[in-house]
Every structure is written in C-alpha cells, then in structure tokens.
Write a structure and sequence with these properties.
Strand content of chain A: under 5%
CATH topology of the largest domain in chain B: Rossmann fold
Number of helices of chain B: 17
Number of helices of chain A: 14
Number of strands of chain B: 20
Oligomer: heterodimer
CATH architecture of one domain in chain A: Orthogonal Bundle
Radius of gyration of chain B: 24 Å
CATH architecture of the largest domain in chain B: 3-Layer(aba) Sandwich
Distance between the termini of chain B: 51 Å
Number of domains of chain B: 3
Largest interface: A-B, 30 and 38 residues
Strand content of chain B: 25-35%
Order of helices and strands of chain A: EHHHHHHHHHHHHHEH
Radius of gyration of chain A: 24 Å
Number of strands of chain A: 2
Shape of chain A: globular
Strand order of the largest sheet of chain B: 6-7-8-3-9-10
CATH superfamily of one domain in chain A: ABC transporter involved in vitamin B12 uptake, BtuC
Distance between the termini of chain A: 14 Å
CATH class of one domain in chain A: Mainly Alpha
Largest sheet of chain B: 6 strands, mixed
CATH class of the largest domain in chain B: Alpha Beta
Strand order of the largest sheet of chain A: 1-2
Structural class of chain A: mainly alpha
Helix content of chain A: over 70%
CATH topology of one domain in chain A: ABC transporter involved in vitamin B12 uptake, BtuC
C-alpha cells in the first residue's frame, strides 16, 4: 500500500475541442471567480465593501451619458489599433510597433493641420490628412517588413525600435510647432477655426470615430476570412514552407500585410489627433499599441470577438482609475484588481485546452478500505 | 504461475480525451524472450509501452515487475525497476560525445574515464560497435540508435523496449541490430520490439502479441504462425498482402534529369551530378538511407530547392515540347503548363496547413482562381467531398482541421488533392510512413492507378520490400550520388542494401 502514495495526484491531458458553450462557460466562471477574489482582496486590504467598489467600477463607465460616450470612444481607439495589428499577428509577424505607426500617422496628420491649414479648404484638407497619415503609418510598417523579408531580421526588435524613432520625431516637431513659444507643447490646433477637425456626427463628437472603427471591424473580418489576401496570410503564418510549396511569394505577403497593418495604425493616429484630442503629444497613443497585443490574443485574432475584449480592457481600466480616486486608494490598487481579473481570464485558457483529472481511482480505494 | 515473467500488465486502461488508447489490455513480458508487439498505427502499442516506461500513467489496471505490484510515475522510477525504452525519435545531445550522452543526467560525480570503461564492457558483451568519444553529430542514424541502446543498458535496464527500431535502418544495419538483440535475449534480458513489419516479427521474435484498436487480441508463438494469420489478427479481417504491379503501357520519356547538383544552405553537397529519366506509365522508386538526398532531389525538381548545376527537362506529351524547369519556382512551373504534383514528406508542415479544415487545404492549390480578390470555397468544398468519398477518409466532415485527423487520413487528403490536379508527374516522398496497412494499400493502389493513366510516378520509399514489389525501376541514392538503377522485377534486397551504403554496391571497402 505504501506504493499507492506515489501515484501522481493529478493528470494533465490535452482536451479535444470543447463545444463553444463549454469554453465560454469556463471563461465566464473565470470572470466570476476573479471578481470573487477581487472582493476578498478589497475587503482584507482596504476594509471597503467590495460591492460598492464594484459599483464604482460600473459607474465609471455607465453613470452618465458622457462617460458612456468616452467609454465607446476609448473602445473604438483600442479596437482600431488591435484591428491593425491583427493581420500581422495572424501571419506570426509580431508587430510591436503599433505605437510608432500610430505616432507616425498622428505626426503626419498634425503636419497637415498646421502646414496646410491656409492652403486648402477644410473639405479638401481632411482627405489630404487621411492620405498622409495612412502613408506615414504604412512607411513605418514597411521598413521592418522589408528588412524581415530580405534579410530575416527580427521583427519584434525592429518594430519596437521604430517606436522610439517615432517618439523622438514627435518630440522634435512638438518643439518646432510649440504654441506659444517656450510652452513645450502644441496646444489645441486650429482651436478657433477647427480646420482639420473631424466633424461631429449627429451632434456627437466621437460618433464619427466609432463609425469608422465599426466599418474597419467588418472590413477586417471579411478581409481575414473571405479574401485571397487573408488566406495567404493564414498560410504564411501557419507554415512558411507550405506557403512556398504552393507558390505563395512569402516576401511579398509579409511586406503587403505590414503595409496594411501600418496604414491602419496610421489612420488610428489620425482619429486620435483630428478626431479626438486635436493636439499632438508623445503620449497620445496611451500605450494602445501594446494593449492591442492583448486584445488580439484574447480574442484569438477574431475581429468580432475583439470588440468584446477591447470593451473588457477599457472598462476595467476606467473602473480602476475611478475607484482609486473615489475611495482614496492608491492607483496601484486598481492595477492590482485589473491584474487579478486578467490573470483569471488568461489562465482560463489553460482549462479550455487541458483536462485535469484527479486520482479518483485511489480515492475510491481508500474509501472502500475505510 | 509464470515465474519467469519480468512484467505482468493486467487490465490496463488509458484514455486520451475521447479516444480509448488502451482498453483492458493484459500482457506478460518474459525474461530470455523477445516479444514483438504488433499492431497498426493507433492500436495502442506505443501508449502501452509508454506506461511501462513511466511516460504515461494508466487510468486503471495493475503492473507487476518481478512479481511485485509497482507504480511507475516517472521515467526515473522505470529505470529504477530496470525498464528502459528506446524511442523512435532519439533523445541525444548532438554536440556531446556518446559517453557524455550516456552518463547525462545520472547522479554522482562525472567520471568519463570509468564510464567509458563500462561502456566498452557493455559493447563487448553484446557486440555493439560504438566509439564512446565520437560526437553524436558525426554519427549515422544506426550509430545513434546504438548509443540509445547502450545508454539504457548502462543504467542497468534488463527490460528493454524498442519502438519501431528498424524504421530508419538499412537491411544490413537491421541484421546487426537483430544480432545484438538476440545476444541480449540469451543473456536473460526481456526484450519488446514495437513494430508493424511482419517479416521482422518473423525474423526476430519468439512470441508476438497483437493489439488492435486499443484491445489486446492475443499472443502467438512466432514459429507456429505465419504472416497471413498475424495480419488478419492485426487488421481484424482477412487482407490480401499482395501489391499489384501492372506492366507499363507505352512508357515515354517524361522527365529527364541530367547532372543535377544541389548544395544546401550550409553549402554541403546534397546531390552530386544526379542523372536519370522518369517515364510515363511507370513507377520509379527511389531508395537510400535517410538523408541521402531524396528530399533535395524532389524539391529541386519541384522548384523549391535552388540548383547549382544540371538540367531538369519536362517532355510535354501534348505538344511534344521539351520544357526546361531549371531555376523555376513552383509558380512559374505551373504557369508553363507543367503539371507536377508533389506529396512532400512533411505532410502537415509543408503539404497541408494543420489548423485549416479540409476545404481550405484543398484550396491551397486553387485559391488564386477567380477574377476578384475573394475566395471561392464552392469548388474546393466539392473536391473535399469527392476525396472523402473516393478515398474513404474517416472524418466528421469537411470543416474539421486536418491536424485532428489520423495520420492515414491526413495522407489521403494530401494525396487526393495532388492527384486531383491531374498531374503528368507525381512525386511522393515516404507516402506510407506512419500509415496502417489498409491506408498503405490504398496509397499503393492510387499509385498504380496513376501509373495506368500514364503518369510518371516517382516514389521515395523506405521499406525495400514494398519498393521491390511495386516499382518498375528503383534508383538507389547514396550520399547524394546515384548508386545505381535496378529493375524492380529482378532486384535483390541485399544488393540494394549494399548500394545504399556504397556507390555501385561493390564490396571493395572491407
């Protein structure tokens, strides 16, 4: 019987696929569990009532119409970058340069708004801005792709480094265009004339952004699933050797996809400058280029699911920011809560992919002996 | 009862997800005996043995070693019980020497000198041929295998399990392996070899245990049985073991290869002035030990591998034109109207995309068709249905990722797609590797069917018996050179074996 104790307590084995309702059931359980753990942590560390903390998280996004619009706007911006990086990720090209590509687009937009404000009427300027921002983002995406395709450079490092170049360029031009002189910032561009500002739709400042991103979502879904390009991207991502075997020009696909990825990031830059902030700062992207990685992965690169994951991340972030002020808690505390929730959600993927069985046989035997 | 039993497994169950890999299997392994564990792919042979080796843990059932009930929770515990397993894929560190690999992971002080001495003793006792200080990367496949066996013996194993040990060996190397296995048996060790090759079972084993579909079917005394009986037990119904070889009808020159020379990325010469012809209505077999240039040869013809020298000329039967395929990419070759089909060795890494479903894999060849930028899944879908029906692919539908299909079904999908291109030349690299008997025979039939349609079939194989039964001619490669081309109907196995290791096959070396 002494031998029995050496039997492993748990076996971990790979699951065959679960039906969708089971896998989403597991995810939902993870979310509920994580809220439970958050509640416990809140009670023990702060003494606050966890329900009121949760209430505050909810209020941060939904307590007023304005807050809801801000929430939607933030979701749209995060989703936009995520949609941009998704084709690259699907191709297993780790584009961590979303930040830089957005900044390049934002910089191009700003340049148009400042330098061309007297040259074009507003109706002509906006198309010019769109073209320029897309071109700038595309260039930022093209450079690492070209090097990867030609010489096999590491795209992760390359795109990351391109971010810093973009940040430095933006810092430089902020000084060039600073308003007023010596302020170290641009301030609101064309505040009185609103030249180059994206117009409000139905009286809502952010509605145009949201519509653009909604269209992009549908576009990306169709592009990835039903277009020949999307098919080539999946093949290259799965196996470069298969791609070569069927005659796909891998280099061409890498460059084409990254140009698209960069271009959409550049367009997001435009939405941020011209559609939202009407100014340019080095932090205008708010780290979305990196958060997009998480949005895309959590949604398994499916543009439709990405709506959900970007909502989740933005909602949590907003709530976290709010409770730290409302309850006088440190900002780190809200990060802890966000961390707990993400830990559970990402961790749940393990239980979707693997089955864990306990040593039922041994237990049975023990009880029989008792 | 059975006092000489080294291992008794009783009522073993093991389940993976929805698959019952072992269903109530009971098996005895005796000392001084070679047991062949026979079964088709997926019959649960390797799973069963992995449970002895501590890699898997049974869901239920008991294992006794030397009469004692034991629990084997890890490979280390298996070693403590004297059980050692030699896997199909070697687990050796390339940059270390044989001796270093053998002592790797053992506790205690590293003393290579005494280790080397002990290794020599083991080698002398059983007739192994190993140089302890030779680096692994310098070794041939059979030498690496020897190191694996010595490693297991070094750790004191007296129950040895070998998982398809001959799959990578030449006939001569196989004979050598069998000789040392017999020595070990006579020394009182218990030996299990996992295999699906009947001639090896007959040549080597004392007893043969048959598994089918995860169940234990029975044990036979090898000398009292025959190939047909074993096959019937293995497959579960009577099967014909004969491979047809219709005579070529009106063979015409289709592919003319002259002085093809290829270097790989590291600049090593992989093909050295290879010249041969492939004719329509004929199956040309290509034999050779693994890495003799088979892969490079097919990929060079297909346009995936850059060539240094030589010509590849395709003779088009419709226009009677000779088309030079040298320096062309697969796409350019297809645009020239040359219909080459290629079933690569690496099915899921090259021929198919594992995560895509059958329809999307059909589309790999045809997705470009159509004027606009969108995919048309209709034709690929009906092609998928056709292949599932015609080749009897066992699958729940067309929308299952091919990775989830069994090896044989994956291969049917790939071969089906390639045949559906109505090729003029069909190249196949190891098309039956890992396939069960039924699937293998389906593939052989398909090759014959293509041959009868006038396709020039090039078949790279590893089982010489099959090559000799199926092919009209056999080209033997050795170290990137053509060692010779023999008539499949008159070929001699020993002769081919020699040609695989020495160009021309002359025995002048020793």
């Amino acid at each position: 019987m002494a031998n029995k104790t050496r039997e492993p307590l748990v076996h971990i084995s790979r699951r065959s696929t679960l039906p969708w309702y089971q896998s989403w059931g597991i995810r939902a359980c993870a979310l509920i569990l994580s809220l439970g753990v958050c509640a416990l942590v809140t009670m023990f560390t702060t003494g606050e009532n966890p329900l009121s903390v949760f209430g505050a998280i909810y209020d941060a996004s939904f307590s007023s119409q304005r807050r809801t619009w801000v929430l939607l706007q933030n979701i749209a911006m995060l989703l936009s970058v995520s949609l941009a990086v998704v084709p690259a990720f699907k191709m297993r090209f780790w584009n961590l340069g979303g930040e830089g590509q957005m900044l390049a687009g934002a910089l191009a937009t700003t340049a148009c708004m400042i330098c061309l404000r007297d040259a074009f009427p507003n109706g002509a300027l906006i198309p010019v801005m769109i073209v320029c921002s897309i071109a700038a983002g595309a260039l930022w995406g093209f450079v690492p792709a070209f090097f990867k395709a030609k010489w096999g450079t590491n795209e992760t490092l390359f795109t990351l480094m391109m971010n810093y170049i973009a940040i430095q360029l933006v810092s430089f031009f902020i000084i060039v265009w600073e308003m007023p002189k010596g302020a170290g910032q641009i301030g609101i561009i064309n505040q009185s004339t609103e030249i180059g500002w994206l117009p409000p739709v139905a009286g809502q400042k952010y509605l145009l952004n949201i519509i653009v991103v909604a269209v992009l979502t549908v576009f990306m879904f169709i592009y990835m699933k039903y277009s020949k390009h999307g098919y080539e991207i999946s093949v290259v991502g799965e196996s470069v050797r298969t791609a070569r075997y069927v005659g796909i020009k891998v280099e061409k696909v890498i460059i084409r996809t990254m140009v698209l990825s960069g271009a959409l990031c550049g367009l997001t830059g435009l939405l941020l400058v011209s559609g939202t902030d009407h100014t340019l700062t080095t932090t205008i992207t708010g780290g979305r280029g990196f958060t997009a990685v998480m949005v895309a992965w959590l949604a398994k690169f499916n543009p439709i699911w990405m709506i959900l994951t970007s909502f989740l991340l933005v909602f949590l972030d907003k709530g976290a920011g709010d409770i730290s002020t409302k309850f006088g808690l440190n900002k780190s505390f809200s990060d802890i809560l966000t961390g707990i929730i993400l830990f559970f959600i990402i961790g749940s993927e393990f239980f979707i992919n693997y089955r864990i069985s306990f040593r039922h046989s041994a237990k049975k035997e023990e009880t029989e002996h008792v | 009862m059975n006092t000489s039993a080294a291992v008794e497994m009783r009522n073993i169950h093991k389940r993976f997800g929805s698959v019952l890999a072992n269903n109530d299997v009971s098996l005895d392994i005796n000392r001084g005996e070679i047991l062949a564990l026979l079964g088709e792919n997926g019959s649960g042979k390797t799973t069963l043995m992995n449970m002895l080796a501590g890699i898997y843990f049974p869901d239920s059932g008991t294992i006794r070693v030397n009469g004692e009930p034991v629990v084997i929770a890890s490979p280390k515990e298996a070693f403590e019980l004297g059980i050692g397993m030699i896997h199909q894929h070697f687990k050796l560190v390339d940059v270390l020497s044989a001796a270093e690999n053998i002592v790797l992971g053992l506790e205690g002080k590293l003393d290579l000198k005494s280790a080397t001495k002990k290794i020599r003793e083991i080698c002398d006792a059983y007739g192994f041929d190993v140089n302890p200080s030779q680096k692994i990367y310098d070794m041939s496949v059979s030498q690496k295998q020897t190191v694996e066996i010595v490693k297991v013996l070094y750790r004191g194993a007296d129950i040895l399990i070998l998982d398809e040990p001959t799959a990578v060996l030449t006939p001569q190397e196989t004979d050598k392996l069998f000789a040392v296995l017999r020595n070990m048996r006579d020394d009182g060790k218990a030996i299990v070899i996992i295999t699906h090759k009947l001639n090896e079972v007959q040549a080597l084993s004392d007893k043969v245990a048959v598994l089918r579909g995860g169940r234990y079917i029975g044990t036979l005394i090898t000398k009292d049985t025959n190939a047909q009986e074993m096959t019937d037990m293995m497959v579960g119904r009577a099967v014909s073991l004969n491979i047809d070889r219709p005579d070529p009808v009106d063979p015409q020159l289709r592919l003319e290869i002259r002085d093809l020379t290829v270097r790989n990325e590291e600049g090593l010469l992989k093909l050295d002035h290879v010249s041969f012809d492939a004719n329509s209505g004929e199956i040309l077999g290509i034999a050779g030990i693994s890495g003799a240039g088979q892969k490079e040869l097919l990929e060079a013809i297909y346009g995936l591998q850059g060539t240094e020298e030589g010509t590849v000329i395709f003779h088009d039967p419709e226009t009677n034109k000779a088309i030079d395929l040298k320096y062309k990419t697969p796409m350019q070759i297809r645009q020239l109207g040359v219909s080459l089909s290629f079933v690569p060795e690496d099915r899921l890494g090259m021929g198919l995309v594992g995560s895509m479903d059958i329809t999307d894999n059909m589309m790999l060849r045809s997705y470009r068709s159509g004027p606009h930028g969108f995919l048309n899944r209709k034709a690929p879908k009906s092609m998928a249905r056709w292949i599932i029906r015609e080749l009897e692919v066992a699958t729940p539908g067309t929308s299952i990722p091919v990775r989830r299909l069994s090896g044989g079904n994956v291969q049917k999908v790939l071969v089906g797609r390639e045949i559906a291109q109505t090729p003029k030349v069909l190249m196949m690299a190891y098309p039956v590797r890992g396939l069960d008997i039924n699937s293998s025979y389906t593939i052989y039939q398909l090759m014959n069917l293509q041959k009868e349609k006038g396709v020039a079939v090039i078949f790279v194989g590893e089982d010489l018996d099959v090559l000799m039964e199926l092919c009209d001619r056999i080209l033997v490669l050795c170290g990137g050179k053509v060692s010779g081309i023999v008539d499949g109907r008159k070929a001699d196995k020993q002769q081919i074996g020699l040609m695989m290791t020495r160009v021309g096959g002359e025995q002048d070396g020793e």
